[in-house]
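Cont'd.
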Amino acid sequence: MSVKHALLALLEQQPMYGYQLRAEFEQRTGTTWPLNVGQVYTTLTRLERDGLAFADGEDGEGHVIYRITDAGRDEVATWFTTPVGRTQPPRDELAIKLALAVTVPGVDVGTVIQQQRSATMAALQDYTRLKRQAAAGAVPDAGADDGSGGADLAWSLVLDSLVFAAEAEIRWLDHCESRLRRAAAGGVGRRNARLDEEAPARGAR
Amino acid sequence: MNPVLKLTDVTRIHGEAPHEVLALRGISFEAHPGELVAVMGPSGSGKSTLLTIAGGLDRPTAGSVTVEGTDLAGLGQHGRARMRRTSIGYVFQGFNLIPALTAAENVALPRELDGVAPRRARAEARKALEEVGIADLADRFPDDMSGGQQQRVAIARAVVGERRLILADEPTGALDTETGEGILQLLRARCDAGAAGVLVTHEARHAAWADRVVFLRDGVVVDETGADRVDVLTGPGAR
Ligand SMILES: Nc1ncnc2c1ncn2[C@@H]1O[C@H](COP(=O)(O)OP(=O)(O)OP(=O)(O)O)[C@@H](O)[C@H]1O
Ligand SMILES: [Mg+2]
């Protein structure tokens, strides 16, 4: 995740100090990708070094306020208009695990799939619960015009993203399972195991 | 708390040997008040069979089914029919609306059959149609509605009155995602209000609204997420 760009984008909205940046980030993304304050300050130092932001004095309580530069604004604009790279898909532990499970002898792939599906389903239940909570707490149709409505929207979009990803993973697991079953059944396109299929074919010529 | 629905060692064999199909193999299953349970599994795994047996529309070959403590087998035909009208709301995989009746009449029918005054039954029907977002279609006939609209009528019919057990077989099948979510919200609200619900679905995102998700394979529960995790993988289902 690009902490640098996320913080710059927040600074484009208004000058802020470290804790504030972290709070704003988490208001939009929940605790999905927690940021520690140390990380925020190292990033701010780097932004300053690269001329993308600068420390612009302190507020009444002694917080150092950071402000974005013109170069920083350009950087944010470029970030938003450049698609997230897909040329090298992020390493997917589950795909790798299954790829090995189907080739390494003695692994019960069916169990691997089922356990993963249950775990992913449980996560999906959690995300859905969070979504329901968010919906219950939010004013219906809160627009993006006031700050909090926009943050609510951002958070619910992040949740949607997690929901879609979990859903896709479950679909893929279903797909793997049915392909494996078909392969196990001898490549014949059987839809289900049947009692009469378990017995040897009768009346075969 | 006593379960609203309890299946004990239910087996259902369809057809005759040598072509018999073992649709359910000794399934035990409960749904408690306030609980929404989702059932997932590949096509042919026995989901609809499970639901029709839970709703008293089909009878197990072996095992028992109780609804609110009453054994369905001991009820007889009339008793079961009454139970279906009063306690159980059922959404079929096909919608099963009566073509000669309007949407409102379809929804009001089970209530009227059960002796609720027609006027009150109509009022309840309109309220249920409102809840599924098609109050304006109350006087339409099923043939003059889209698939998704018919589906919503079927759902209204299942939730009208104070049903304690709501059984829904792919209730979101013909609906777009937003309308589908609306239906889940409605089911969820009914369960939060104290009903027990069983939802059969292929869609993980819909199953995720449930408190518990049960996975069926070849007539056997192979796994379950939710409150009490059970490791049934080593059970009779593992072959
Ligand atoms: N009346 C019947 N006579 C014979 N076999 C039947 C009958 N009803 C269902 N079956 C068989 O029982 C098995 C379970 O069917 P069921 O309808 O419960 O599956 P399902 O999980 O609901 O599938 P789907 O997702 O396709 O709706 C299937 O193999 C089906 O062919
Ligand atoms: Mg079915």
